[in-house]
Amino acid sequence: MSTSVTFDVNGASVQVDRSARRLTDVLREELGLWATKVGCDAGDCGACTVLLDGEPVSGCMTPVGRLAGRHVETLEGLHASGEASGLQSAFLSHGAAQCGICTPGMLVAASALLRETSAPSEPQVMDALGGVLCRCTGYRKIVAAVMDARTVDVVEASPPAGKAVGHRVPRVDGARKVEGTDVFGADRVFDDALLIRVVRSPHHRARFQLGDLDAYASATPGVIAVFSAGDIDGRNRFGVIPATADQPVFAEAEVRFRGEAVAMVVGEPDRIEALDLAGFPVTWEALPPLMSIDEALADDAPPLHDARDGNVLIRGHVRRGDLDGAFAGAEVEIEGEFETGFIEHAYIEPEAGCARRVGDRVEIQVTTQSPHMDRVELEEILGLPPGAVRIVPTAVGGGFGSKLDLSVQPFLALAAWKLGRPVRLTYTRPESMMSTTKRHPSRQCLRIGATRDGRLTAMDYVGEFDTGAYASWGATVANRVPVHAGGPYVYDAYRARTVAVHTNGPPAGAFRGFGVPQSTIALECLLDELADAVGVDRLEFRRRNALTAGVPTVTGQVFASGVGYVDCLDALRPHFDRARAEAAELNAGHGSRVRGVGLAGMWYGCGNTALPNPSTIKVGLRRDGRIVLYQGAVDMGQGANTVMTQICADALGVDMACIVTLGADTDTTPDAGKSSASRQTFVSGNATFLAGSSLRARMLALAGVSDEAHLQLDGPTLVARDRDATTELDLRALDADDGGMVAVTSATYDPPTTLLDEDGQGDPYAQFGFGAHLAEMDVDLDLGTVVPRRITAAHDVGRAVNPTLIEGQIEGGVAQGIGMALMEEFLPGRNENLHDYLIPTIGDVPEVVSILVESGDPVGPYGAKGIGEHSLIPTAPAILNAIRDAVGAGVRRVPATPDRVLAAIAEGGTR
Amino acid sequence: LVGRSPSAFDPPAISAHLSSLSPIDDVRATADYRRAAAAVLVSRALADLGGDG
Questions:
Q1: pTM
Q2: ipTM of the predicted structure?
Q3: What does the buried/exposed string (b/e) look like for A307-339 if buried means 16 or more CB atoms within 10 Å of the residue's CB?
Q4: How near does any CA of chain B get to the CA of A784, in Å?
Q5: In this predicted structure, what is the pLDDT of residue B53?
Q6: How far apart are the CA of B50 and the nearest CA of chain A, in angstroms?
């Protein structure tokens, strides 16, 4: 029998070893066709979709041994032949690619559909793409793009000079995403890179002992080195907040959560990949774990960390007004307890990267949201001086907060540094899910008082958050939630207290909203009950109590303008009335399915809570007439590259096409902070505006023209039109630095905030975004299943720098909100993969209507505010309120799975 | 079931017929829920067959 197999890839015959290897492995590693992505290696996510004899299949589930004589097509082939060009243009113009990791799979699956029908219907598109998961877009723009593929010829031209802000500019890095050439963490490989595998705890809590690692390494073929805690020359501790950094790279003596690393094995890729780690010399002594907040807070609970009494990481609070007096004056009072679980980020790109030693430095190419933070932490772990580590972020295939924390980086850095050879590491999907951060589970109790005519008087909130085994962003959640728990409403008195508690769960960290999605569920569900109790229309109730400009927030902060919550509610009014009327008509039939309509509001402060968070952006004019934007704000799909380019172009008053935007690299781009807290458009946007304005001043001076002049770059010639005079300056004739730059400016912006006093009073954020969602849901009264019909989302974005990107953030946030409300809960050890852990598929996301309210923020660039996290926050409570509207009783534990909804139906007496 | 009219299967009859099911409790739903949902789905399927759904 032949030892090789011959088949056809994109029209060319290939011959590879006959083996059980996956097709994805052969395509990527052997044939260099990197457009086909790997998200799960289990046939769940569809990122690896290729065509086999014209039919979409998961490449990861296709052994090459079966392919003799068959035809494989990948995105590279569909792109080269031009077949995908209409689809690619439509994806660009609709903003259907965000991070881009699912884009090749989507385009391949859509191409197969378009061969069958050139004008597919929405259900046909949903059927054809149903096997490909996307975590960023909420799918709606993908559906629209596929339906539009035959009609979009060319992507919209760039806006005129000075008019980029506000324009639906296609993303500047979009072409490489739709062509499949963007390089993600697992796609960058140094020649002869060794492979790393990490040895992890199978127990939630255990003492352990490592055996003779040297003997294991020398006796195991292919293993070049084994590293454990003793090999860390610097500090075996990391954590995103220096004051609470507590997580070891490799555990020492005891593991605190399932999936915690104790060692790593490095060696020849084929052998390391095939290695059975069951033979690794480690002995475990399992200990009883603390798997809930109650267990962790019990008097006799063993402490996870010596310095943290009672397993309490931190407490937070905000107090304002006379709470007892305000409750005494309340005519109506309502209280409730709400619970949420761990939620997995489920980006389609698992953590991945590679590293090499370059002299006395280490260079790491990795998927990350926070390159400069990574650099500093890794230097401390390795015991190297500042500047010894270089982080070059790859494209990020979704982050949502979890890629702020270190994952693969310490392993890569340590192995490359110690061995002096290039190394690589890509987490498996289960490894990613068990070992990286999650959304904090919560138990929240709140009590709200109001007058009989529907004015809020008092609110008292207690939120307990399970921060898992290590601190991660636990302190941020504990400090952010007390500011936000009251929502965008006005109270006579307010108190919110939080506690972050350690358990033996996975570390809970940042996930789109830092605890505010959880607290908003509690608040907004209870507000509906309170509105009903006082007999006031649910939207009017919120409007009557809404925060407005000039009125102090719960921390005493007063905004003179830029408070657009009432505008969001008003924008929803006609939709609310229409939806209620439709529901009443539908429900008159007494069938087994009922329509519910739910509403929820939100506010969210952009940037760090009462802490500095500066961004620095550098811009230069190059001798060849190009503006170079050193854009260090990581673009993880949200569109920072595009937003900064738009702002830079308008600050300079030049055409966007003159700008070359360079992505983050800690050696070349200044620190633009982390991509989190919805801060990049606001904070880095302001830095970009300031740097661009400053470069414009330099260019005006070079040309010797006034502030009024219109600037244009015509090849290497700077053309300045000042009133009637035109000045032309040949940039090649000017002095330039080594990089060919004629002028370089950089600027830093740090939002004006203040520390909070002992009552939590002060100015924690320089701007807040506001929003409200309307959910129309169908509930099956016999099965308890819930089907979303439409979400209408109104958001005060200050000024929409790029409406298409903002709609993308809203639709993607809505999809994650649907997941949070209806299906998602991570249970350590039970659903560490994407077939047991469910995220919304293309069929789960209904029509999303986005309404952009532009209140004009006084400190945002061109009035802009952040939107990244805001869009997720009100979806889940709006859905829960719609369920309650339909069935007469609420669900107070998410996800609202059918059994929980059925229990609510029984309670509500609808059935 | 063969030869009988779908309308002969009222909810108690369907539940009795399904009494041998032993569904699991897991992340997505309780065993009780699964048993109840099975009865609903069977009764809907029968109703559809009978043309009175």
A1: 0.97
A2: 0.91
A3: ebeebbbbebbbbbeebeebbeebebebebebb
A4: 9
A5: 39
A6: 18
